[in-house]
Each structure stands twice: as structure tokens, then as C-alpha cells.
Amino acid sequence: MKRTLNICIISDVHLGTYGCHAKELLNYLKSIKPKVLILNGDFFDIWQFNKKWFPSEHVKVVQRIMKMAMGDTKVYYITGNHDDALRRYSGFSIGNIYLRDSLLIQINGEQHWIFHGDVFDLVVQYSPLLSKLGGHGYDWLIRLNRFVNKWRTALGKPRMSFAANVKQRVKEAVKFVADFEDTAIRLAREKGYGFVICGHIHQPQIRQKNGVTYLNSGDWVESLTALEFNFGKWSIYEYDEADFEVTNPRLKVKEALHDPDDEKVMDEEAMLLDILGAVNG
Q1: pTM (2 decimals)?
Q2: What local confidence, expressed as pLDDT, does residue 256 receive?
Q3: Is residue 243 part of a domain?
Q4: Domain presence at residue 253
Q5: Mind listing the pLDDT tens digit for each residue in 166-196?
Q6: Which of 42, 77, 157, 261 could lock 152 by a disulfide, CB 3.0 to 4.6 Å apart?
Q7: Domain membership flag for residue 126
């Protein structure tokens, strides 16, 4: 049974990279039925995009979102720094899919300002550590992390995030996160907004300060989190493998051999990959 949500926000999926947990994200997307789905930046990682390496699990995530958009779900794609090449097309829309640089929506009489957050890179000084983590060193750290987590899962132990632990323990990293959040809150307050929602720093969070509520949806590389709005309040969803037990293949019902909707999704997905390749090329 799918959970019905008013709004779901995910960010920093980084499709097209090794660190992306596409399988887990697909499980999550199949379990929900949101009225509005917001992809708050870095959904695709155009910086590292390679059409020759785009795993089937990553393709299935794209197909799932397109199926949702073909139904009753409105999908807002907000651009981030790793997909900033799409900003030249901001304002474009097709069907239930809308491409934007930021989004301002009113919920329960409160203005919610939604954007990725990379604009703060010009305001908040990156620490040398985070700069290194943002490059190839970060990618190798994620690879090692996934290898270790496979063993931890096999032993019945919970996942752990190396990068998150480093960020939480190193003084410069902690200061960067705090400065990022405080900057978002300050700017939202100056604009008269009650809520500001970001991604970018891969740190799921809900906190209040100076009359403004700051929210961050985390990511699907380390945290595997999302923001959900339902029953009049926001909450952080954290993926738990135990919630998605594997079904015995013999018990699965075979899908129809021919589904016109599936063909339409595959055609649109192929066209999208061609566009991303052209943008990146």
C-alpha cells in the first residue's frame, strides 16, 4: 500500500555517479504517492554524466518519476550546481514536469522558499576539507563506504556514513554547515518568508531560529533521506532497508507484455538522456 503525501522533497540524488543509491530511492518512490514531488537540485550529476555508463537502476528512477508525472503528481525540478547546465532552460515545462531555479509556494498561509542552496557558495567560505571531499577523494570515500556497509548489512548492523562522521567531527566542517543554515535563515527572514528549504550540503535538518523554519532534505548518497509534508507538518524520512523486504521471485505476478504507457516513458527517458548528453557535451 502506497503512502499518500501532500509534498515530497528529495535532493542530491546524483544520478549517473557511483555513489548514488538508485535502488533504495526507487524502493522509496514506489512506496509513496505524493501530490507534489520536488527534486531540489543535483538530481542528475551532469558534471560526471556519461551516457555510456548510466546503470539500469538509475534509468528506472527516471522512469518511475515520469510515470508519477503522467499520473496526478506535479513534479518540480529545481536546478543545482551539479545540474546547473539546465538553468539556461529554466521556466520550461512539459505536462506535469516544471523546470525552475527556485520555487515559492504557500502552505497553510506560510511562504515556503525552496532552492538548492549552492548560491551560498559565494557567501559562505568552504573549508579546505569540504573542498577535498567534494572532489575525487569524496567519490572514493563513498565507494569505500558502500563496500563497508554491505558487510555491515550482512552482519545485521545499521549503515554508517564516513563522510557524515567526518563532517560532524571536524571543526571547520561543522562551522560550514552552521554558517550555511544561518545564512539561509537570515535571507529568508529578510524576505519575510517563514520557511526556507534547501539541499546541497547533504545534511538532513529541521530547525527553527528567529521565527524562520529551516529544512534540508539531505541526499541519496550518504543520508538517504527526504522531506515529507503531510497532515499539516513537515518531517524527515530516513530510508530503512528493513521496510522493503525482498519478495520471493516465484510469488511475483508477471507484468503485461505490452504497456503503451511504458513505451511512452521509455521514449521520453531516451530523449532525456540524449538531451543531458548534449548539454554535457
Answers
A1: 0.78
A2: 47
A3: yes
A4: yes
A5: 555 544 555 667 889 999 999 999 999 999 9
A6: 157
A7: no
C-alpha to C-alpha distance for 116 and 123, rounded to whole angstroms: 14
Q: How far apart are CA 36 and CA 17, in angstroms?
A: 26
Q: Each residue of 4-43: b (16+ CB within 10 Å) or e?
A: ebebbbbbbbbbbbebbbbebbbebbeebbbebbbbbbbb
CATH code, domain carrying 55:
3.60.21.10
**Residues 29, 269, 15, CA angle at the centre, nearest 5°?**
55
Higher pLDDT, 276 or 254: 276
Structural domain tally of the chain?
Answer: 1
Grid cell for residue 169? 567531527
Per-position DSSP letters for 224-255, written without gaps between them: -EEEEEETTEEEEEE--GGGSPPPPGGGSPPP
Structure-block grid coordinates of residue 28: 522509496
DSSP string, 96-120: TEEEESEEEEEETTEEEEEE-SGGG
Cell 556514513, residue located:
161
Apex CA 143: angle with CA 139 and CA 148, to 5°?
Answer: 145
